[in-house]
Specification:
This protein is α+β, with helices and mostly antiparallel strands. The chain has 9 helices and 18 strands. Helix content is about 25%, strand content about 25%. The two termini are about 15 Å apart. Bound molecules: zinc ion.
Length: about 400
């Protein structure tokens, strides 16, 4: 029997969507994920889970939650042995684009056989799927532990996933991260770096450009070299399993100057690069430095590069891993790579087999009017239940 205090699936979904948890590198958008964590803590403890909530050391006001049920993992020489299943996801969402949403992003709206809301697919909604999938299980019959992990700040720095070592007994044998994949198992993806490229020039009156050093002009040259790096990455590295089979480079944000009649003194570019699994982050940064060496020579001291957050490595789970085979059988889908980044490399570092598989489509992630379809609700719940049954019972 379900716990009496547990809301229906749709009401859990509604409450998760209604609890804002935007994470953003721009402080004016950034919100604590506390409300989402508290809802999950309440619901999971009502099912009998032991709930641990930790405020991040790196980010005040941001929280990770770990909920555990079932037999404690065996201890050998004081070390917890790998056991059971971890179902993981992030509690934060990206900011919403006010002008482009036609619905309230924080109100779950059922229309056109879809459920709309910010985080419906990516990926607060996943927690409602998991809880609905397991609410009627007889936990007294479990043979292996089930853990549910909810992290903070995946969309920005992955700060939450970087603090998993603070749950010392978190040693699953298998882990599934419920990012939206339409329940297709994802067994590898690229890494991610975010760098700030800053040009510092010298200001002056616009009537005589020679009196200063125009940072926008220097940035223009810098962009030329970065375009060469982008091409170089395409030419040198290849992994045919990916739809975009090479490392990418994206210009995401640029800002420079303050007035039309001043020589621009500072121009800043934010960009991301996505290495293939197995590529060293250092290799990427060495290539970046080499391509921008001419700027250093032409304009000594003008160019500065710094990482905006710690890089995320690529990740790969072998095609013949037990979890990949199990997930392929349950979902009826062949495992594939993804062209986006998840917390998988950090979860994988716990020493478990790790895949990414969840309801909803990545096409809706980070989009206005984000949704999941009603048609995928029941099948996804059943597949999650089968996975839990297979591993933990
Ligand atoms: Zn996500």
């Amino acid at each position: 029997m379900s716990a009496p205090t547990l809301p229906s699936f749709l009401n859990m979904y509604r409450e998760l969507i209604a609890a804002p948890s935007v994470s953003c590198l721009e402080p004016q958008w950034d919100i604590s994920n506390r409300q989402v964590i508290e809802l999950l803590g309440l619901w999971l403890s009502s099912l009998g889970f032991k709930v641990e909530i930790q405020e991040l050391e790196r980010q005040q006001g941001k929280f990770n939650l770990l909920a555990s049920i079932g037999p404690e993992p065996e201890q050998v020489a004081g070390q917890a042995q790998a056991s059971g299943l971890l179902l993981a996801g992030h509690t934060d969402t990206v900011p919403w684009d006010e002008g482009r949403w036609t619905r309230n992003p924080f109100t779950l709206t059922e229309a056109d056989n879809r459920l709309y809301g910010l985080g419906s697919a990516d990926m607060k909604g996943f927690f409602a799927f998991v809880i609905e999938a397991i609410r009627d299980l007889d936990f007294s019959k479990m043979k292996k532990p089930l853990r549910i992990l909810a992290t903070a700040d995946e969309e920005t720095s992955m700060a939450g996933a970087r603090e998993l070592h603070r749950f010392p007994n978190l040693k699953p044998e298998f882990a599934v991260i419920g990012e939206p994949t339409n329940m297709v198992p994802v067994r590898m993806h690229k890494g991610h770096t975010t760098d700030c490229v800053r040009i510092t020039g010298r200001s002056g009156h616009s009537s005589n450009p020679a009196m200063g050093l125009n940072a926008i002009s220097v940035m223009h040259e810098t962009l030329g070299y970065l375009k060469q790096l982008e091409q170089d990455l395409q030419n040198k590295f290849h992994q045919p399993a990916f739809a975009v089979p090479y490392p990418t480079l994206n210009f995401g944000h640029i800002h420079g100057g303050d007035a039309a009649n001043r020589i621009c003194a500072c121009c800043e570019l934010h960009m991301d690069m996505r290495p293939l699994p197995g590529m060293r982050i250092e290799t990427l940064h060495e290539m970046l430095a080499a391509h921008l060496a001419p700027i250093h020579q032409l304009y000594p001291g003008a160019l500065e590069i710094h990482a905006m957050h710690e890089p995320i490595p690529g990740y790969e789970c072998p095609a013949d891993a037990a979890l990949v085979k199990m997930a392929e059988e349950i979902s009826g889908n062949t495992a594939e790579p993804a062209n986006y980044c998840t917390e998988a490399p950090f979860v994988d570092a716990l020493g478990c087999e790790t895949i990414v598989m969840g309801p909803g489509s990545i096409r809706q992630a980070h989009q206005p009017d984000e949704f999941i379809t009603l048609a995928e609700v029941t099948p996804a719940q059943q597949q999650i239940r089968q996975l839990v049954n297979k591993i933990c019972f």
